[in-house]
């Protein structure tokens, strides 16, 4: 066996070694990482590897299977590093010793800006080291974000002010204005990165409740660090509010409600409450934590056209594959029917794959028990459509 094959075998043994955490990416948790940072002594996935390549002073990467590993690199930089640090778990313990509870740790499916800023915060800025400065809650924050106009697609510079203690987010249309355009309660706020939908790599969607509807703000900032700092500041303010609102609940049960991504989004066609109206194409977004299925005429609409609160099966909520007898879709034939105590919602999907994904997502929500936070939603909303 040649040196290169022997070295590759050693790396693969390290990759599969038990109790090291090496079977998952050290940064985003993706399974079966295929790259190694021999300067940090960790195994990482292809996506995170792309971020590491931008910081050669901090991290040097090579493919475990595709690159050539000469004896000097393997012996000195990899095997010794991994032997000392015992793989991903030990290195993570060093660089993630004090990650604040509110700080969002990206997962494999998250957007690039979240992964990039997480990696830079860990290894470049070393924000979470045990011997670093004490990390405090972000508290108040003020700055400028580019916000999409409600009635057009133009992004304009707007001043945003977060008052964490008061539980408020404000934004102003003029830089020196004293009167905000909107005052948003942290109680009803969510933030989620929607880079593809917004069409910007730093695109953030902020939603809140207004007059019984969901208001969407679409914003971005040129700086990846700035937009992620805003995102985590909103999460910190949400955690502060939830702790006061639900003092009896442990912090672990509050974490999923700081911010959340949509479980599924996409176009479907729907008919009206009589099931005799023409099917119309709408953009749907499923918020599993608030148990809402919202629908819009267009993905970047400021307000939803309607929404469906999704209780559970014991309360009379169901979802069925296919359409009711005698009803046919317009262009799309793969149907599903949501039954609530008030009415049926009849929908069609562009193909069977989308249909099965929607069915799986909806059934997952209907089969899960209502939490105390869900009951707050249920008390003000039931299965309804505004139009």
UniProtKB/TrEMBL annotation:
Domain PH: 138-239, 261-367
Limits of the Arf-GAP domain: 9-137
Key word Acyltransferase present: no
Organism from which the protein derives: Pongo abelii
Pfam family, one: PH
PANTHER family to which the protein is assigned, alphabetical: ARF-GAP WITH DUAL PH DOMAIN-CONTAINING PROTEIN 1-LIKE PROTEIN (PTHR46021), ARF-GAP WITH DUAL PH DOMAIN-CONTAINING PROTEIN 2 (PTHR46021:SF6)
GO MF term (any one): zinc ion binding
PROSITE patterns with a match to the protein in the record: ARFGAP (PS50115), PH_DOMAIN (PS50003)
Cellular component, GO, one term: plasma membrane
InterPro entries per record: Arf-GAP_dual-PH_domain, ARFGAP/RecO, ArfGAP_dom, ArfGAP_dom_sf, PH-like_dom_sf, PH1_ADAP, PH2_ADAP, PH_domain
Protein name listed in UniProt: Arf-GAP with dual PH domain-containing protein 2
Keywords, comma-separated and alphabetical: Cell membrane, Cytoplasm, GTPase activation, Membrane, Metal-binding, Repeat, Zinc, Zinc-finger
SUPFAM superfamilies, alphabetized: ArfGap/RecO-like zinc finger, PH domain-like
Entry superkingdom: Eukaryota
Biological process according to GO: heart development
Location in or out of the cell: Cell membrane; Cytoplasm
Presence of keyword Metal-binding: yes
């Amino acid at each position: 066996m040649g040196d290169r094959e022997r070295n590759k075998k050693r790396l693969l043994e390290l990759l599969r070694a038990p109790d090291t955490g090496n079977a998952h990416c050290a940064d985003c948790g993706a399974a079966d990482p295929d790259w190694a940072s021999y300067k940090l002594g960790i195994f990482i996935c292809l996506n995170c590897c792309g971020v590491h390549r931008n910081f050669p002073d901090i991290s040097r990467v090579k493919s475990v299977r595709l690159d050539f590993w000469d004896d000097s690199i393997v012996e000195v930089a990899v095997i010794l590093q991994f032997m000392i640090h015992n793989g991903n778990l030990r290195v993570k313990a060093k660089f993630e010793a004090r990650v604040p509870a509110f700080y969002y740790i990206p997962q494999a499916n998250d957007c690039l800006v979240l992964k990039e800023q997480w990696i830079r915060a860990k290894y470049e800025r070393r924000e979470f080291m045990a011997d670093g400065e004490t990390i405090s809650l972000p508290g108040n924050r003020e700055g400028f974000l580019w916000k999409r106009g409600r009635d057009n697609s133009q992004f304009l510079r707007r001043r945003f002010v977060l008052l964490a203690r008061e539980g408020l987010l404000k934004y102003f249309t003029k830089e020196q204005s004293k009167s905000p355009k909107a005052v948003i309660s942290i109680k009803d706020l969510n933030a989620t990165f929607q880079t593809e939908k917004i069409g910007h790599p730093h695109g953030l969607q902020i939603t809140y409740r207004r007059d019984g509807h969901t208001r969407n703000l679409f914003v971005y900032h040129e700086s990846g660090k700035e937009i992620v700092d805003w995102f985590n500041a909103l999460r910190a303010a949400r955690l502060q509010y939830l702790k006061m609102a639900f003092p009896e609940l442990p912090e672990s049960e509050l974490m999923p409600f700081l911010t959340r991504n949509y479980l599924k989004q996409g176009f479907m066609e729907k008919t009206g409450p009589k099931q005799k109206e023409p099917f119309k194409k709408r953009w749907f977004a499923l918020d599993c934590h608030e148990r809402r299925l919202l629908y819009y005429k267009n993905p970047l609409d400021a307000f939803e056209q309607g929404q469906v609160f999704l209780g559970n099966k014991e309360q009379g909520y169901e979802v069925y594959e296919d359409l009711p007898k005698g009803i046919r879709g317009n262009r799309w034939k793969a149907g599903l029917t949501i039954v609530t105590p008030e009415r049926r919602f009849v929908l069609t999907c562009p193909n069977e794959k989308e249909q099965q994904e929607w069915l799986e997502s909806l059934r997952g929500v209907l089969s899960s028990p209502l939490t105390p936070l869900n009951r707050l939603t249920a008390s003000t909303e039931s299965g309804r459509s505004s139009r």
